[in-house]
Specification:
- By secondary structure, the chain is of the alpha/beta class.
- The protein folds into two domains: about 240 residues, no CATH class; about 140 residues, 3-Layer(aba) Sandwich (Rossmann fold), CATH 3.40.50.2000.
- Helix 1 links the parallel strand 1 and strand 2.
- The longest helix has 18 residues.
Length: about 400
């Protein structure tokens, strides 16, 4: 098959999927925004298509960059039209597009063109691309935490348009509940794919546990509360070593995980996420916020914590060596059965190439049953966005005919 991966590199996902597809003999194209902690070479950057395309025929490359900038200054619409044509040309004949992160440039015309040529689309949502944070605060008990202003920068109407576009065009959606408050279409659980052969598995089994916390963004992982709880436990006589890891290369983080007994993952969003799964694969017991009503496909062996019970649950974990070892061993067994990149890739491809062949893991209903718009303008924006998908079979089955608080489905 000819497979394209398009999006923002997140936790090494695009690079790992591309490598796995190539191992299987597929023709792979990557159009992705790199990430500083996950070094990888992609064929194109979705935000710099024209300059990179020109650079393949113009030397030195800086002349191509200057030419692209000059065209933008003269005619932004012409620049955008050329980039649309370049990307459609690159994706001509693609059998499967895997998009990691929603809301990239040129999405609407590109998806329409891909549908006309018969390309299957798998959409993988990663967090802030579709999560509406005002809604998130109302849907989940997140205590007194606040997010930085930039998390609210993208208007609700824009996130709605992005999500409805993917709901309309994608053959399979992959996500998790706490970023899908705006969703209407059923979706699959976004499993974390791990290249287990590259990860060192070790269960140290220390009497005095080494506890690691490695927040990508501390103020949205609950780091302040986590560290206060650990400080209080230490002051109360619980003996442990604490390691705080920030801003390190991914390879360095994996080495740290292999030498830790416990990882405290996150307390605001729901895990385990990438860090939690890498910790389980490495031989750590994991404590994280977790949705207890998760479907059968997502039942990892973790200690579930929240802002109310964190001190009690961590005390239990840090004072019971046998519990830590049992969780570490169960965690590795879980990821081997559910999260190897081979298994996750098989599942993703099957669900995208054969839409409807597998029952979805989630049927979202917060928007259609519970959410109360803050004002009439928000209700109007939601009602307007829903018209894009109103003729879809899944919409007629799961949303049509409902109404409440100014929302009409």
């Amino acid at each position: 098959m000819k497979i394209a991966l398009r999006g923002h590199e997140t936790c090494g996902l695009i690079g790992n999927l591309a490598a796995e597809f190539r191992r299987r003999g597929h023709d792979v194209l990557t159009i992705a925004l790199p990430h500083k902690f996950f070094p990888g070479q992609f064929d194109y950057d979705p935000y710099d298509l024209l300059a990179q395309s020109l650079a393949r025929g113009i030397r030195p490359a800086r002349l191509a960059d200057l030419g692209a900038k000059a065209l933008w200054e003269i005619t932004p619409r012409g620049y955008q039209a050329i980039e649309r044509r370049i990307e459609r040309s690159l994706l001509r004949g693609v059998d499967l597009l895997v998009q990691v992160w929603a809301g990239l440039p040129r999405e609407a015309p590109l998806f329409a063109a891909l549908r006309r040529q018969g390309t299957r689309i798998a959409s993988l949502f990663m967090g802030s691309d579709v999560r509406e944070y005002n809604m998130f605060f109302r849907q989940y008990d997140v205590g007194a935490w606040t997010f930085p202003a930039e998390y609210f920068r993208v208007p609700l109407a824009e996130k709605l348009a992005t999500l409805r576009r993917h709901e309309l065009y994608a053959d399979a959606l992959f996500s998790v509940p706490d970023q899908m408050g705006l969703a209407l279409r059923p979706y699959y659980h976004l499993q974390v794919p791990l290249e287990l052969s590259t990860m060192r598995y070790s269960v140290p089994g220390r009497e005095r546990p080494r506890v690691l916390h490695a927040p990508s963004i501390p103020h949205v992982k609950g780091t302040d509360v986590i560290e206060r709880a650990l400080d209080a436990l230490r002051a109360d006589g619980v003996d442990f070593e604490f390691v705080s890891v920030r801003n390190v290369a991914h390879s360095t983080l994996l080495d740290q995980l292999a030498d830790a007994d416990v990882v405290v993952d996150e307390l605001v969003g729901h895990g385990p996420g990438w860090l939690g799964f890498e910790a389980m694969a490495s031989g750590c017991a994991v404590a994280t916020r977790y949705l207890s009503d998760s479907p059968p496909c997502f039942r990892p062996p973790v200690i579930a914590i929240d802002q109310h019970n964190i001190a009690t649950r961590l005390r239990e974990l840090l004072t019971d060596r046998g519990l830590r070892i049992r969780l570490a061993e169960a965690g590795r067994a879980y990821v081997e059965c559910n999260n190897s990149i081979q298994l996750v890739t098989d599942s993703l491809v099957a669900k995208a190439l054969h839409p409807g062949g597998a029952e979805c893991d989630y049927v979202p209903d917060y928007l259609t049953t519970t959410y109360v718009p803050e004002n009439e303008a928000i209700a109007d924006a939601i009602n307007s966005a829903n018209r894009l998908v109103a003729d879809q079979p899944w919409y007629r089955e799961h949303a049509a005919g409902r109404s409440h608080d100014g929302l009409v489905f």
